[in-house]
Amino acid sequence: MVKTKSANKMAKNGGNTDREVDTTNDFSSLARCADEGQVIVIQQDKQYERRQSSQGDAENVGMTELKAIWKSFTWTNSYVFSKIDRALVNGEWMNKMPPIQVHVLDPYFSDHPPLYIELGRQQKATTRPFRFMNCLADDPNFRNIVADNWQINTNAIYMKKVWLKHMKQAMKGINSKEYSGIADKIKGIRNELQIIQQQMRTPNQNSHYFEVEKELRLQLEKWDVVKESIYKQKSRVQWRNLGDSNSAYFFVSIKNRRAQNQIKALTNAVGDIVQIEKGIEEKILNFY
Q: Does the model's pTM come out above 0.70?
């Protein structure tokens, strides 16, 4: 982890860096205002505009904000509570680190609570529920599956149960058969394309090679579009144009979103923070 120059200097340099970067203590130049929705908000409209500008500045230099837990503000004078200090990291840092959250600690004698980043604690992998991806709707078999399941006789009052019982299983089958391991599938097609193109380097080649190359190009384009669609849906980022989808920030946003969906700490009834997975599981079960 490398402490950087100021974010403004990074912006002047185009934000280009191939090192792991953490600007936890250097974000005051980007985030110059408080978040709305706290105890007291002054000049809400201006603060909103400034916050949007600071987020845009971070994106322009290839940085993304880590999720903060325990507290929703990082500065207070006992009357006004705001979120000024933030932890920003670049894509290289996110790619080399596991999903990480920022802990906002107690301020003690300061008006700025320290931000603490814990490294090295991996969360146990769990089975995720099936999620319908938009690319499934473009599958050639999709319309036939919907039509077939719509004709099924059922005693269910709501058609939702038709989806849960029949269509969901069919969609899961297509997803696991055709759309699992997209990255490996694309890698395999690229390798095949590279081999074919190596054989086509000399003139007077067999016309069969050209047909194979054309088919591989079409397959590569198809699965690239599918992968892009899946990543867009997972990241929940609204892009202004299609070219942004392959940027480093795009993939970092997916990983950061994954970190936000994880529960790594809970506070019990007496105010103690529980971070052990077994303790978190017991607390959730006891709550329900």
A: no
- Which H helix or E strand runs over 97? none
How far from each other are the two terminal CA atoms of the chain, in whole angstroms? Answer: 40
Is-contact 88 118, C-beta < 8 A?
Answer: no
* Per-residue pLDDT reduced to its tens digit, 267-280: 777 767 776 677 77
**Among candidate residues 215, 258, 221, the one with its CA nearest the CA of residue 236:** 258
Question: 115 - beta bridge partners?
Answer: 104
Beta carbons of 133 and 179 less than 8 angstroms apart: yes
Domain boundaries, the chain: 2-119
Predicted confidence (pLDDT) per residue in 135-182, tens digit: 888 888 888 888 887 777 766 666 666 666 778 888 888 888 888 888
Q: What is the dihedral of CA 136, 142, 147, 153, to 10 degrees?
A: -60
Angle made by CA atoms 118, 6, 78, in degrees to the nearest 5 = 65
Q: How far is Cα of residue 165 from the mean position of the Cα atoms in its chain?
A: 30
